[in-house]
Amino acid sequence: MPDHPFSPSTTATERTPVPAFDLVIFGATGDLALRKLYPAMARRDDEGVLPPESRIIAMAHQARHIQDLPRQIEARLTTEGLSAETIARFMRRITILQADAHDPGSFAALSAILDRSPHVRAIYLSTAPDLFVPICRNLAQHGLLDGGARLILEKPIGRDLATAQEINDAVARLIPESRTYRIDHYLGKETVQNLLVLRFANTLFERSWSSRDIDHVQITVAETVGLEARAGYYDRVGALRDMVQNHVLQLLCLFASEPPNQLEADAVRDEKLRVLKALRPIREGDVSRSTVRGQYSQGSIDGKIVPGYSDELGHPSDTETFVALRCEVDNWRWAGVPFYLRTGKRLSLRSSEIVVVFKPVPHSIFTNVAQEALAPNRLVLRLQPNDGLQLHMMMKVPGSGRLKLVPRTLDLRYDTAFDFRTPDAYERLLTDVIRGDQTLFMRRDEVEAAWAWVDPIIRGWQDFNVRPFRYPAGSWGPSQAIGLIERDGRSWVDPESS
Question: Can you give the CATH number for the domain in which 107 is found?
Fold first, then answer.
């Protein structure tokens, strides 16, 4: 029997073999590594993608973590539904070492393991950004950034433009940009990648992808979780730095970019950079009209009472857990089209989606139907959960009586359109690093352009004392966010649970 025509084993990506590699993870005991990195690699292992000689070296900061880490990894992989055989095979790939980011001598053991290894070397810094530079310096001192080594930097890159430039400059002195991979896992999601296919492989959509036919665009990234284990980190950064500067702006860039001349890393990233540079700045007094800060208070999620942010944190705080923005892209394609962005914690549903609202028909020939009853077409690109596309359009109700129109939905979801599992974003991105493909990673000028746009908003909040409005957990944010869009005569399209 031939492979299923849409099986991953028959795609160009999977036909390109993954070379043998050594993946070094700093921050190996952290939340990201346990929840995402080990499961991603274990699933790739389970599917036979990883060469048998490939290794994972987990770098723990403290010796006491080394003994407990295997149990934690195994427990996590068990909850992911992987078999005992798969877990046992994967655990044999892992070596756990201790290293202090500020102690060059503690990198000697890592150097000994990697010395003269012929494998592709990928080093993942899943740590706080203030540790990026000292770790890189110690790696360079031991020659571990030589020989084609690839460096993966987890977001956020800094906390503002100045610190991002400082990190980027220091890293650039030790390893070239061509081997630096700044990761944003949203770019690895199937629906995000499908944006390129939707636009540039279908003339139906690309011809209407502009201010001529689109009324406005909404981007929502909603979480139901609160602080979890990130309280110390989150209270220092807030939703704007944690989500908008990277995830949300990357979605906007891919949506609004011009067609690249080819599907090649720098061609795609050049077009994203042009969007960032065309974003109209939000400065000074504009922050009150074009932004909304929010912070969740006590409420209900899935029928359970949850505490407010300050109660969860343990002390009062003005850190925002919700942001809504109205922004515009000042170029020929998007002139006059507002982009409404929102993201937050403790919202009604966990959902990430882009909603494209098209302009209404200019004139209705259906005299028995009120103009306002003709719902504008909407295209919904859902990233999570239930990844897929939905096209909302008007249809005739069957029957020979008086003509009656109703809105109906064409629904294309990955779980029904394909008969195989959709890979997790980190599965795709980690193997892209090993293959040497930078297309879905951020270049330094992208990161810095995003900070250059975000920084004035933060300064405006500080200068005008813009404090967060409260919203109950389980809602869609503060009422002021509704006012932000309704001032323009529009309304938020809230994600659906199904």
Answer: 3.40.50.720
